[in-house]
Design goal:
CATH topology of the largest domain: Aspartate Aminotransferase, domain 2
CATH superfamily of the largest domain: Type I PLP-dependent aspartate aminotransferase-like (Major domain)
Shape: globular
Strand content: 15-25%
Radius of gyration: 22 Å
Distance between the termini: 45 Å
Bound molecules: pyridoxal-5'-phosphate
Structural class: alpha/beta
CATH architecture of the largest domain: 3-Layer(aba) Sandwich
Length: 412
Amino acid sequence: MNELKLSSKDLMELENNFGAHNYHSIPVVLEKGDGVLVYDIEGKQYFDFLSAYSAVNQGHSNPKIIQTLIDQARKLTLTSRAFYNSQLGLFDKFVTEYFGYDKILPMNTGAEAVETALKLCRKWAYEKKGLPDNSAQIVVCENNFHGRTTTIISFSVDPEAYGHFGPFTPGFIIIPYNDADALEKVLIETPNIAGFLVEPIQGEAGAFVPHDGYLRSCYNICQQHNVLFIADEVQTGIARTGKMLACDYESVHPDILILGKALSGGVYPVSAVLSSQSIMDVFQPGQHGSTFGGNPLAAAVAISALEVVRDENLAANAFRMGNIFRAEMKIICETSKIASFVRGKGLLNALIVNDKGYENLAWEVCLKLAENGLLAKPTHSNIIRFAPPLIITETQLNECILIIKKTIKSFE
Ligand SMILES: *Cc1c(COP(=O)(O)O)cnc(C)c1O
């Protein structure tokens, strides 16, 4: 039987030959995951420092979440919202109480939840704020990442993301990130603004952390102008940055909160939009939906995934491990010719490398890290994101820091 087993090379060839080439994957073929570890099909072990873009905060194959998945899958998986199901109401109550909101609208992927938030914001603008129909503008930030739908890439500034995908959806105004004055200016000068969509920390831009007070200032400015503050916490939420939400650092309670990724612990696609009753009420039956959104399997899995985050104190662990990680990376950067600086919050971090004179240095470092047993992925030619599952222990983290040190040294 073993003779028939395909090698990593065979399986990569299959993907390359029969799959669309819309990803540039690190050449490892993973077969198994357990906590912070993953294994390729030859049995080589790696520390996972990507966590599926922060979807696997609770660790791979978390036994509690997997048990919930199995139990619920045996009972009922999908009914559509044409009917009520036995899990969705429990999920709605649990998640709204967990994050302090009146109402939730469940979806599947992050991009769908962002789309839902944009539609919600526009409808609110016409029906509650009183803007003329089809006039609503939503302010977004430079270097944003909110997903891959046609509307969302309409306000990307990354040519890779929007190139040759036009014509684009109108109604978005792009301002610089980390610049509350720019937000105030646009809200004063432009009529018909409905909302401000922002990532509390820009994840895909390379764990770019705005200065302290930015979110609070933006929230206050939005309040003054009756504009909805919409936080995309798909990547930063669910304890990733050392608090349950990154907005918690500035005690900001977004008017609309977007969650995804770790909402299911990486076990099943689950996303959600949370808001107040008066905002969410603008959706009436038949006006928005998704066949899989709010299915009983997703609902059960998400409750379990959030229980793990709370019961295992993952926010506190992410906070503490993140401080250790950045302190160690700073020491590396002090003497290294190629490691320039580290930034991030909790366990959402990035190491910026000096790629002058090197081609694709971040990529080359990631290949070497993989060889040395640690998986990470560049976000740009000179930025490596480090985001392990939040269950990582100090002993494991120290082992990983040694791997990173050794790898960086090999490039000096
Ligand atoms: C990943 C991500 C999304 C999109 O989520 P998908 O599930 O890939 O559609 C949206 N916003 C942010 C901030 C993200 O990191």
